[in-house]
Fold each of these.
Amino acid sequence: MEDYKRGSHTVWDCKYHLVWTAKYRYPVLAGDVGQRCRELLREISRSQEMVIYAGSINRDHVHMVIGILPQISVSRAVQHLKGRSSHKLLSEFAGLRKRYWVNNCGGVVIGCRRAAM
């Protein structure tokens, strides 16, 4: 139980595998854009108290295994990650206009366990 986080009345460990793609799967996340996207996702996850366990940024999609607090819904976490990263990337790389994220996200629950203390 060392890996579990503790609240005042709960013990939890919520990890999710998130995948999202660029619009029409355009290969926009290559090179400098991909590196900047990686930095932004790390910054955003730290600011929201999320933990990235694994991840990869491919030319046209992003994979992340991420730990999210139980108080934050998965949709809210994805909203923060995609919204803030796309806003900053679009302001820094003007060539990305109209070729970025699709309005969907696929996710698989890896483990979310709660137990009363």
Note: Strands lie at 5-6, 10-21, 51-57, 61-67, 106-116.
Amino acid sequence: MKLLKLLFLFAASVAAFAFAAPGPVQEAPDALVKRITQEVMDTARNDKQVKAGDRTRIQQLVEEKILPHVDLQRTVALAVGRHWRETTPEQRQQLTDEFRTMLIRTYAGALSLVGDQQLLYKPARIAPGESDAEVRFEVRQSRGRDPIQVSYRLYRAADGWKVYDVNVLGVWMVETYKSSFSNEIARGGIDGLIRTLAEKNKALAAQAAG
């Protein structure tokens, strides 16, 4: 389970890095993923501060390169499911903020997993004008370990393609969060879920500080 979580974080970090601000003519999402992902992985391999585990530097990369191209509210809304309609604007903002804080820390941890992996992309069939896309690839590892199958889900927003879900080894991230979020909401409502996320963020902060 711990390995699967790390793989999720690695895939999510690579996925979110893969989207730059669109130019006058938008790149196809698969072409964009291939180009930017390679640049980011090269940076993760060669940046001395990142390799040394400098959390300030890593979090800076997350803030500047990842989060602007991830639709966090869409991800959270899908994970919360039908209960999202019951939330107030303030609760939605709190949920998104806590989820954002959690992702910053988990993405930062995932960057340390970037090593000598190679990515092999699957053929993508994305018709012109499509508003949703799925980009699939496998992560080939060294030492004869089995490749890891990864997929990204994206949608076309007004300001370019946005990541909102990732699949590792056949398990979608949103579905995983939906299960745990549903349990927390059943126990303590939306406010209970917010408290749980806040507590987890405090624990992660304490762990990082220690």
Note: Residues 2-209 form a domain with the Nuclear Transport Factor 2; Chain: A, fold (CATH 3.10.450.710).
